[in-house]
Amino acid sequence: MSQRISVLDRVPRALDNDNDLIDLVQELFRLDRRRASDILGGTTTTAYRRIHEYLAPALDRALEIARRGAEDLQRFRGHILLDLTRSLILIKYQSSRNQISDPLARALTDIVNRLQNEIRRGGSPETIQRLIERARVLIDSFAVLAYEYG
Question: Domain span at residue 141?
Fold first, then answer.
């Protein structure tokens, strides 16, 4: 239990800093089966794939918009927020069905909420880009765990 808390509690810092992101990903990939199962619980590969198949393209679309600049970011803000909200619904749905673990669902929810908050508050395109890029690395890293140990 303590491993699950220490690893996933570092997600917010990993969203803020490349070095923390790299350290967290490396630690995730060093987990043995027992410690990975502390994070994944009963997460099924199919359930995580469904979340990832929706969330990853949503992040990619948002990143492309953010790269085009503040004007496009403002213009498509509602679309981005709606995509992220749909992702939250899917995460909650899979969690309610006990298809993904509560710790993993919380980590994913925290990532999506953080992105939504930054977009709502009107963060700079550069800040939003970096946040999305880090979020994408994290969800991809969780996918590796889900496929390896789910």
Answer: 2-149
Task: Check residues 30 and 6 and name the one with the higher pLDDT.
Answer: 30
**HSE (side-chain half, CA atoms, 13 Å) at 123:** 17
Return the structure tokens found at 5: 């808390």
Mark residue 32 as left, alpha or beta (left: phi above 0; alpha: psi -120 to 50; beta: remaining).
beta
Distance of alpha carbon 12 from the chain centroid: 10
Entry pTM: 0.93
Q: How many domains does the chain have?
A: 1
Mind giving me the DSSP string for 56-117?
A: HHHHHHHHHHHHH-HHHHHHTHHHHHHHHHHHHHHHHHHHHTTSS-HHHHHHHHHHHHHHHH
User: In a 3-state reduction of DSSP, which class is residue 14?
Assistant: helix
Cα 79 to Cα 82, 109, 120: the distances in Å are 5, 18, 12
